[in-house]
């Protein structure tokens, strides 16, 4: 498309997303990798929460993906396991830009999840063991007692819990949005029929 230049230029949406994230990392004061993740439960009721994007994988023929980590038994984990679909939006106020995407979801490989888990601070690893994410909690004291218990049980180099790991969102649609004068924003949507299929790119009305 002739007018898809500047920050929208390129033939790979994952490369564009990485470039935008890198720029946001230099300008956004807090959590530039934060994204609002949307899922639905078994009744079709939508749900949303903030998570941290940990990696934008290249498309090597299998579809590429946006990776985050969580407790598989959390509300979002249960919803993802039921539908294997999700959407997200990343918004950077400092850049006046956002990325929206939706697509299919799969678990990342165990080796990849193990490597990421081992890179986390010890307190975060112990917290992953202690928290029954999304389940009722009697008190904060109860949670801290559970942290103490798992610390004694797991030691100072805890392995990844079997109920914790990564998810890969393989997008079928990706939209890049940038603020424009007089609310005439620039929007480009990338769309494909299946992971690994060719992309179709179109400009959208603001």
From TrEMBL:
Pathway: Cofactor metabolism; pyridoxal 5'-phosphate salvage; pyridoxal 5'-phosphate from pyridoxine 5'-phosphate: step 1/1; Cofactor metabolism; pyridoxal 5'-phosphate salvage; pyridoxal 5'-phosphate from pyridoxamine 5'-phosphate: step 1/1. Binds 1 FMN per subunit. Catalyzes the oxidation of either pyridoxine 5'-phosphate (PNP) or pyridoxamine 5'-phosphate (PMP) into pyridoxal 5'-phosphate (PLP). HAMAP family: PdxH (MF_01629). InterPro entries: Pyridox_Oxase (IPR000659), Pyridox_Oxase_CS (IPR019740), Pyridox_Oxase_N (IPR011576), Pyridoxamine_oxidase_dimer_C (IPR019576), Split_barrel_FMN-bd (IPR012349). PANTHER family: PYRIDOXINE-5'-PHOSPHATE OXIDASE (PTHR10851:SF0), PYRIDOXINE-5-PHOSPHATE OXIDASE (PTHR10851). The keyword Transcription regulation does not apply. It comes from Meinhardsimonia xiamenensis. It is an enzyme of class 1 (oxidoreductase). The gene is pdxH. SUPFAM superfamilies: FMN-binding split barrel. GO terms for biological process: pyridoxine biosynthetic process. Belongs to the pyridoxamine 5'-phosphate oxidase family. This is Pyridoxine/pyridoxamine 5'-phosphate oxidase. It catalyses: pyridoxamine 5'-phosphate + O2 + H2O = pyridoxal 5'-phosphate + H2O2 + NH4(+); pyridoxine 5'-phosphate + O2 = pyridoxal 5'-phosphate + H2O2. Keywords: Flavoprotein, FMN, Oxidoreductase, Pyridoxine biosynthesis.
């Amino acid at each position: 498309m002739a007018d898809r230049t500047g920050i929208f230029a390129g033939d790979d949406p994952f490369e564009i997303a990485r470039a935008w994230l890198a720029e946001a990392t230099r300008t956004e004061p807090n959590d530039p990798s934060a994204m609002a993740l949307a899922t639905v439960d078994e009744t079709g009721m939508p749900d949303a929460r903030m998570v941290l994007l940990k990696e934008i994988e290249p498309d090597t023929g299998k579809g590429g993906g946006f990776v985050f980590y969580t407790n598989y038994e959390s509300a979002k984990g249960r919803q993802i396991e039921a539908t294997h679909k999700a959407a997200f939006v990343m918004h950077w106020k400092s850049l006046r830009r956002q990325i929206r995407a939706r697509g299919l979801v799969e678990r990342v490989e165990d080796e990849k999840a193990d490597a990421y888990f081992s890179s986390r601070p010890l307190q975060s690893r112990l917290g992953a063991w202690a928290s029954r994410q999304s389940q009722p909690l009697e008190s904060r004291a109860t949670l801290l007692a559970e942290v103490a218990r798992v610390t004694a049980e797991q030691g100072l180099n805890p392995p990844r819990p079997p109920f914790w790991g990564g998810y890969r969102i393989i997008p079928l649609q990706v939209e890049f949005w940038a603020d424009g004068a007089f609310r005439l924003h620039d929007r480009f949507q990338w769309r494909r029929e299946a992971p690994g299929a060719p992309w179709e790119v179109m400009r959208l009305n603001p």
